[in-house]
Specification:
The chain is α+β, with helices and mostly antiparallel strands. It is built from ten helices and eleven strands. The strands form four sheets. Strands 2, 5, 7, 8 and 11 form a five-stranded antiparallel β-sheet that branches. Helix 2 packs across helix 4. The longest helix is centred in the N-terminal third of the chain and has 67 residues. It starts with a helix and ends in a 6-residue tail after the last helix.
C-alpha cells in the first residue's frame, strides 16, 4: 500500500511538473497581449467582418463612379429577305443582303434630385458603420481572450494550490509514519493521512484536467492549432493597485463608453445612412434630365459603286433627208460599271452623330417608387430603434459590470481574510498535533479548510481581475495585465 501511494504521488508530480515545463521554449510562452493580437489576426468572425467592410468599400466606390458619363457600344449584324429598306441607300430593294449597324451611345445625368449624391452618402455611412462593427468585434474578441486567458491562469494556479496541498499532506504522512514507528501515534493516524494524500492527489488530477481543458478552450478562441505547444506567461498582478473602480461612478463609465464603443457608432451611422437612403428613394419620384450623345454608321452587302466609262462613238440615229440623202448621227457612248462598296468606305461615309436632351418624367411604374420610399421610412425607423437598443444595452451592461466589480472587491477581501484565518488555524493545529494535543481527524479538517480557503482566494482574485479589466474595456483602456 505504501509503495503504491509513493508511485502514485511521483507520477502525479511528474505530470504536474510537465505543465510548468511546457513553455521552456520562449516561442511557446504566450502573454495576454500576444494572445489578443493573434486572435484579432486569425479569428474567423473578424475575417468575415473584414470582408463585409471590403464589400461596403467597393459599393461606395461604385456609387462614386456612377457620377461619370455612361458610354456603351453596340452592333447588329443580320440578313434581310424580301422587300426591305437598304440601310446604306434608304431605298426599297427586293433582294437578300447582309447588313451591319454599329452604334455608340453616351449619357450624362444633369439633374436627378440629388439621387446619386444621396446614394453616395448612404454608402459612405454604411462603410463607416461596417468599420465600427469591425472595431467592436475586435474589442469583444479581446475581452473574450482576457476571460479565457485568466480562466487558464486560474486553472494553472489551482494546479499549484493542489500540488502544494499534496506536498503538505505527504510531508504530514511521513512525519506521522515516523511517530507511529516510534510508538508515539497509532497506525490509525497513518491510515487517515494516507487517505488524505489519496484525496489530495485526486484533486490534483482534476486540477490538471481542468487546466488542460482551459488551454484547449483558449486555443479554440484564438483559432490556434490544438497541437501547438502552448504555455501561459502568468502575469504578476497586484490586485490592490487596480481597485480604483469603486471611486468611478457607473454613469461616468457609460458616458465614456458611448464616445468610443463601436456598436454605438455603428447605430448612429446606420441612422444617417437610412436618412440618406430615404432621400435617394424620394428622388425617384421626380423627373430627371440627362444629356445624350450618339454616333453610328451602317453597311450593306448589296450597296454597289456605280462608274460610267466612255466606250467611243456610236451611231445614235439619222439626220433628215438632205438632197434625197440620209446621213447617220453618232454620239459618245457611256458604259455603266458596278462594283461592291468596301466595308471601311461604307462605315466611314455613313457616319451619323446626334446630341440630345432627355427628360424622363415618372408617371406610373406600378407604385414601385412609392413603395420604395415607404420601405426606406421603415428602414430608418428600424435603424433608430436599433440605435436606441444599442445604447440601452450598453448602459445596462455598464451598470451591471460596475456592480459586479464592486461586489468582487468585497468577495476578494472576504476570501483573503478567510484564507489568512485558515492558514493561522492550520499552523496552530499542526503545533498541537505535533504535541499530541489534537487528533488526526481534527488536523485533516483544519487542513482541508485551509485548502478550500486558498483555492477560493485564488478564484476570487482572478474573478476580480477580470471584472476590473471589463471596466477598463468600457472606459476604452488597453486590456493588459
Amino acid at each position: 500500500m505504501r509503495s503504491f501511494i509513493a508511485v502514485f504521488i511521483v507520477s502525479i508530480f511528474l505530470n504536474a511538473n510537465a505543465i510548468a515545463q511546457t513553455g521552456v521554449n520562449a516561442d511557446n510562452v504566450w502573454s495576454l497581449q500576444r494572445c489578443i493580437r493573434y486572435a484579432i489576426d486569425h479569428n474567423l468572425s473578424i475575417r468575415q467582418d473584414s470582408l463585409n467592410a471590403r464589400l461596403a468599400r467597393y459599393t461606395l466606390n461604385q456609387s462614386k463612379l456612377s457620377q461619370l458619363p455612361t458610354l456603351s457600344a453596340s452592333g447588329s449584324f443580320g440578313r434581310s429577305f424580301g422587300r426591305s429598306i437598304n440601310p446604306a441607300t434608304n431605298q426599297f430593294v427586293d433582294a437578300s443582303y447582309n447588313s451591319f449597324v454599329p452604334t455608340v451611345n453616351g449619357n450624362l445625368l444633369l439633374f436627378g434630385w440629388l439621387q446619386v449624391r444621396n446614394s453616395i452618402e448612404r454608402n459612405k455611412y454604411s462603410l463607416e458603420a461596417s468599420l465600427a462593427d469591425l472595431d467592436q468585434l475586435k474589442d469583444d474578441i479581446s475581452v473574450n481572450v482576457v476571460n479565457g486567458f485568466l480562466a487558464a491562469v486560474l486553472a494553472q494556479e489551482q494546479v499549484n494550490v493542489s500540488r502544494n496541498q499534496v506536498s503538505l499532506s505527504q510531508a504530514q504522512l511521513d512525519q506521522t509514519r515516523a511517530f507511529a514507528d516510534a510508538g508515539r501515534l497509532p497506525e490509525l493516524n497513518v491510515a487517515q493521512l494516507e487517505s488524505q494524500v489519496a484525496t489530495d492527489s485526486s484533486n490534483l488530477i482534476n486540477s490538471i484536467a481542468n487546466y488542460n481543458s482551459s488551454l484547449l478552450d483558449l486555443k479554440t478562441l484564438l483559432n490556434l492549432d490544438l497541437s501547438t505547444p502552448f504555455a501561459l506567461q502568468v502575469p504578476d498582478v497586484e490586485v490592490t493597485d487596480q481597485l480604483t473602480v469603486s471611486s468611478v461612478q457607473p454613469e461616468e463609465v457609460y458616458q465614456k463608453a458611448r464616445t468610443h464603443f463601436g456598436s454605438i457608432k455603428a447605430g448612429q451611422l446606420r441612422v444617417s445612412a437610412a436618412e440618406k437612403g430615404l432621400a435617394a428613394s424620394k428622388g425617384t419620384l421626380y423627373p430627371q434630365l440627362s444629356l445624350g450623345y450618339q454616333v453610328g454608321s451602317n453597311w450593306a452587302s448589296n450597296y454597289q459603286n456605280v462608274t460610267y466609262v466612255p466606250s467611243g462613238p456610236q451611231q445614235v440615229g439619222y439626220t433628215d433627208s438632205i438632197g434625197g440623202r440620209i446621213y447617220p448621227v453618232y454620239g459618245q457612248s457611256v458604259q455603266t460599271v458596278t462594283s461592291p462598296n468596301p466595308f471601311n468606305s461604307q462605315i466611314k461615309d455613313n457616319i451619323r452623330e446626334g446630341v440630345f436632351l432627355n427628360l424622363s418624367v415618372p408617371i406610373f411604374n406600378g407604385w414601385q417608387s412609392q413603395y420604395a420610399v415607404r420601405q426606406s421610412k421603415i428602414t430608418l425607423a428600424q435603424s433608430e430603434l436599433n440605435e436606441y437598443n444599442a445604447e440601452l444595452t450598453l448602459k445596462q451592461n455598464v451598470y451591471k459590470a460596475h456592480n459586479n466589480a464592486v461586489n468582487s472587491i468585497q468577495k476578494y477581501y472576504a476570501a483573503k481574510r478567510a484564507a489568512d484565518a485558515a492558514k493561522r488555524a492550520l499552523d496552530f493545529a499542526r503545533k498541537r498535533y505535533d504535541l499530541g494535543l489534537t487528533s488526526t481527524v481534527d488536523l485533516l479538517v483544519t487542513q482541508n479548510s485551509e485548502f478550500a480557503a486558498a483555492a477560493n482566494l485564488v478564484g476570487a482574485k482572478y474573478d476580480l481581475i477580470f471584472k476590473l479589466k471589463l471596466i477598463d474595456y468600457y472606459l476604452g483602456k488597453e486590456l493588459k495585465l
